[in-house]
Amino acid sequence: MFKYNMIAGILLASLAGAAQAQQTQSNVTIYGTLDAGIINASHSGTANDSVTGVGTGIIGASHIGFVARENLGGGLTAGARIESQINIDDGSQGKSSSTGAANSVFGREANVFLEDQKYGKVTLGRQENAAWRTYSSIDSTGHSNIGGNPIFLSDGSSFGGTATSKVGLNRYTGGSFVSNALRYDSPTFAGFRAVASRTFGGVPGDLDASSSNQLMLRYDNNGKMFGAVGTYRAYDTNGNAWGGNNYVGLGYRATQDLTFSGAYWRLENPNGAGAANTKFDLYNIGARYAVTPKLTASVGYYQLKDKISSNNGADLASVILRYNTSKRTQFYTAVSGVNNKGTSGFAAWGGGGSNANSLAVTNGLSGAGVDQTAFAVGMRHSF
Fold first, then answer.
1. How many CB atoms lie within 10 A of CB 122?
2. Torsion-angle region of 293 (φ positive above 0: left; ψ -120 to 50: alpha; else: beta)
């Protein structure tokens, strides 16, 4: 009897251990960032006034997300991610800066993925634009909504052209998130990593509806020298007109505390079919300096040139100070100024709402060709 009891005990202990081991193979992580502050902007609204108010997503959009991972063994992991945007000023559900998910609860991300340590990662569903993370990692401002490249790349209305065709890059040449997408991230080989994605279109059964292709190649030599090249092509709902961008970005860490960066975009037909045959060049240079282990200063300068109509374009400059009290909490202050030419009407702050060009507290600029300056102080907390 003792023998059988011992065997049963061993079996039960083994089963309990196996169950516990299986439970530890999968996990769910809740994460997010909340960003809000006070922002003042000049030349705003129909009254062309200076306006002050609470801004949400001043540096980056506030969001909350859930990611689940399960270890399948042999270096293979399966998982899923959902992510929602939040407006801190009134607590409402935020809208991502690209079309196709304006009223979705999880308008930023909703996808499943399969990742292998040797062969890379495949993601299916709504997800971050493959180029977005690359832009943010190279840009000196950290892809900031105030004084950073999202002002141009996520703009909703101010790329020149006719009044009926100012739809901006968020619809036509790759906003921050894309729907109906298949993406592959390669593993890193000798500092190189490739990303390829295919967006099949926003209308079921119509593969030409807002379909797109993208390819990015990233290189990082332990942070000393880094850069990326990429191309993006998107097609309208009829599959006729197209728009896209080509990108080259470089970064160099001169010292442990000082980093320089530069980038170039060729933006073609960003306004859609109603304003075909438009071309814009967007240039950026910047630097970031760690003043102290907690305080970082960054400067950025952007120049947009209309290659078809030289009277249109914009210049943007910014200075951002970030102070990290901890790994999770950051205080910041930023000043940004934009000089608009011709029909261009970019704001100094991209904001985090449904129209990334419009200041939530100002109803946007008073009109095309109007300059604007913005000053903000705020706080970001991540969890």
1. 14
2. alpha
pLDDT digits (tens, 9 = 90+) for 220-251: 998 899 999 998 887 766 666 677 788 999 99
Domains, the chain, ordered by start: 29-382 (2.40.160.10)
Answer yes or no: is pLDDT of 138 > 80. Answer: yes
Of 50, 88, 59, residue with least CA distance to 377: 59
Q: How far is CA 371 from CA 167, 187, 316, 377, in A?
A: 20, 44, 10, 21
pLDDT of 350: 72
Write the CA distances from 318 to 143, 162, 167, integer angstroms: 12, 29, 25
What the block records as the tokens of 14 is 């083994």
Taking the CA of residue 375 as centre, how many other CA atoms within 13 Å lie in the half-sphere pointing to its CB? Answer: 5
Nearest to 169, CA basis, from 299, 136, 161, 87: 161
Q: What is the DSSP letter of 22?
A: H
> Which one-letter amino acid corresponds to residue 323?
Y
User: pLDDT tens, 365-382?
Assistant: 656 778 889 999 999 999
pTM above 0.70, yes or no: yes
- In this prediction, residues 69-76 reach a mean pLDDT of 95
**Interatomic CA distance for residues 35 and 361, integer angstroms:** 15
